[in-house]
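Sample entry (259 residues):
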Amino acid sequence: MRLAAEAGLSAIALTDHDTLEGIAEANEEAVAAGIELIPGTELSLDWSRGGMHLVVLFLTPGRGHLQDRLGTLQEARSHRNARMVSRLGELGFDISSAELAAEAGGGQAGRPHIAAIMVRKGYVPDIATAFEQWLAAGRPAYLGRNRLSPEEAISLARMEGGVPILAHPHTLGLDNAGEVETLLERLTAAGLIGLESYYSAYSSEEADGYAKLARRFGLIPSGGSDYHGTYKTGIALGTGRGDLVVSDSVLKELRAAKP
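Predicted structure, serialized as tokens:
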């Protein structure tokens, strides 16, 4: 939160994967730093073609339809982590569950934490290589887990007043514009509200293209830097690789679209 304020941001969303951990602490820091915190989460969905992630903004900790399901998703993550650690051991990588828990700082552990341990132990040169060679879908150490369907995730998000946004659409593994449009028709019918159009990996032309696509389907062009700290190098908080701008008007429009 302090970094966000120092970067000149007016607001920041905290959307860790399948969890709302850290929101309460972040809110205290945000108030002290004089910056608005948007609570939320990022859900990994059941999608066979690539990585489908749903950012849910304005989702607060506590009891609720989606909040309660997060516990189930976290349990599935924990089981998958244990299985992946075992699988890595079979592949010759000496990594323990205790090391993984320590790397995650007691919070929700995931593949980026495993990758960081692999880098620290000299098994791979960097986190990107850990994923490309070992941890990504289809690689030797990858194991799947239970996930929500896109429709179920969107429905649960809206039931709790959250704003569901399809994140970084370039990772969906779709081959052509027709497939993208078919998917957006499906998700819009399910209640999708936004499409992440302003993103660290996109050129200005790509961002404009996704923004126009969003408007065609009645979606709000959203954005974010996808900042992961040291786990994703070369990306600065709020500005991505230095040229990312997400206007305050985006947040205003998303807030007005809350169910």
